[in-house]
Design goal:
491 residues; mainly alpha
């Protein structure tokens, strides 16, 4: 390591560079309303607006028995200070993305002892992912970047079992994938001699107590606010898990050959397939070659250095050496759980929001490799692979920015919202993917009820009470005297 002052300057420089890259890859989704905004996100926006006005106190995502409404609570203070908008709603998640990037670099260059530049390289899969993943990390549809915060916090709290249990319960109720932190941490810790003691049993007891406290509090609140307890969450999650072998095999194949490669950019896919308005096709076989070659280099390095730190007597940071393995295991478990979802359809665009934590897998592998490898050549090759990988993803993100600047992705819903407001049409009906977007973008000046999936029953009630004044918005091709954008306005 260089002298301390040099390390501090280097850390400040790479952290600033990481923040700049996060802002760059977040620009289009954060600035252009029409690039990536749908009813799933509009519902969170409506939750935040209602909370900012103290109309409701959303505990869970509207209309669901799972996913704590954490995102609405994050956005609400901003809506209380300014006019609600897509851009304002994205702002805190841009900040959280930058926080995760800086946090990773700071921890790896601090507790794990990596040089700041090398820590920056290790974090590149998160700092500069593909354009589709960049958009997903800003998607406020229940959960986006927050699980990364939970993963880092839970590692920090691993020696405070009660606090760990409290946070784990919140994290699990918010996004169930965060439960993988527990087996990952156990697998990392179980190799230590002092793990198999009564102290560990007490730690598990305090963790279980913390988890139970939050569980019972939320269960009671949910019972009073919604009318049913957390048994509904368990049932909802169970109904989304499919373990039938004939169906599981093709989903496993899809995970390995489609979803994970697309997540890393190792396979080309139109970004529009992720419901983002751009004509860019991102990812390539070249990235796949780079990623595969880098993993081989790290595998070779780890294979011959696997027991380098078996004796940790002279290691000032013996327990921190497990951080890389912890990250890699969380990512690996996330990838393994992906095929269990009934919502996964082989040969269709992957559900990247279910896979985001898998970005931690290459980060963790690189950290474990960098800590063990003594070969400068192997370490340089692995670092170069990560830099080339991130550079190719950066180029794809730049292409998306250029495409957006040249042809701004104007949201189609803005045209119908403007028409309805100008015509003083107060009530409407539309399909789910239109209804709640119109509700949010109109500032609820137009109350639109969903004709299929219902998330906000109060809107249904209001429109039913004013049925005579309500219009129906039908997607073209359709019959109607008034056509606005992609809709016919049927009176």
């Amino acid at each position: 390591m260089p002298p301390r002052m040099t390390v501090k300057r280097e850390r400040a420089l790479v952290c600033a560079l990481a923040v700049a890259l996060v802002l760059l890859r977040s620009f289009v989704a954060a600035y252009y309303e029409g690039f990536y905004f749908d009813s799933d996100q509009a519902i969170v926006g409506l939750m935040a607006r209602h909370l900012s006005r103290l109309q409701t106190f959303p505990l869970f995502y509207y209309g669901l028995n799972y996913m704590l409404g954490v995102e609405a609570w994050i956005i609400a203070p901003l809506f209380a200070l300014g006019r609600s908008s897509v851009q304002l709603a994205r702002l805190p998640f841009v900040v959280l993305n930058a926080v995760v990037a800086v946090w990773l670099i700071a921890r790896l260059s601090g507790q794990n002892g990596l040089r700041p530049a090398l820590a920056f390289v290790a974090a590149l899969p998160f700092i500069m992912p593909t354009p589709a993943v960049s958009g997903q990390l800003l998607e406020f549809a229940g959960s986006c970047v927050e699980p990364f915060i939970y993963v880092l916090l839970l590692w920090t709290l691993r020696d405070r079992p009660l606090a760990f249990g409290l946070l784990l319960a919140v994290a699990y109720l918010h996004r169930e994938f965060t439960i993988f932190t527990l087996p990952a941490l156990v697998l990392v810790e179980c190799w230590r001699r002092d793990f198999w003691t009564r102290a560990t049993v007490r730690r598990f007891g305090w963790t279980a107590a913390g988890f139970a406290i939050v569980w019972f509090i939320v269960d009671d609140l949910k019972m009073h606010l919604i009318g049913n307890g957390l048994i509904g969450q368990t049932a909802s999650l169970r109904n989304q898990v499919c373990t039938s072998l004939p169906e599981l095999i093709p989903r496993v194949r899809a995970m390995a050959t489609e979803a994970v490669p697309i997540l890393f950019g190792a396979r080309s896919m139109p970004v529009a397939a992720a419901r983002m308005r751009t004509s860019i096709v991102a990812g390539s076989w070249a990235i796949g070659v780079v990623v595969a070659a880098t993993l081989v280099v790290m595998g070779v390095g780890n294979r011959f250095q696997a027991f380098r730190y078996a004796d940790t007597a002279n290691d000032p940071r013996p327990r921190e050496r497990g951080f890389g393995a912890y990250l890699a295991l969380v990512g690996l478990f996330t990838a393994f759980a992906y095929p269990l979802s009934c919502n996964v359809t082989p040969h269709m665009p992957p559900l990247l929001r279910y896979l985001l934590l898998a970005l931690l897998m290459p980060i963790g592998l690189f950290v474990a490799f960098a800590e063990r490898a003594r070969s400068h050549a192997l370490r340089t090759c692995a670092a170069a692979g990560f830099v080339v990988w991130a550079s190719l993803n950066l180029w794809d993100n730049v292409r998306v920015i250029r495409d957006a600047v040249h042809d701004p992705p104007l949201g189609e819903h803005r045209a119908i919202v403007n028409y309805l407001v100008q015509q003083r049409i107060r009530y409407a009906r539309a399909i789910y993917w239109d209804a709640y977007v119109i509700d949010f973008l109109s500032g609820e000046r137009v109350i639109t009820a969903s004709v299929d999936i219902v998330r906000i029953p109060d809107y249904q009630k209001q429109v039913d009470e004013h049925a005579a004044a309500a219009v129906t918005l039908e997607r073209q091709p359709c019959e109607g005297t008034t056509k606005v954008g992609a809709w016919c306005v049927v009176r």
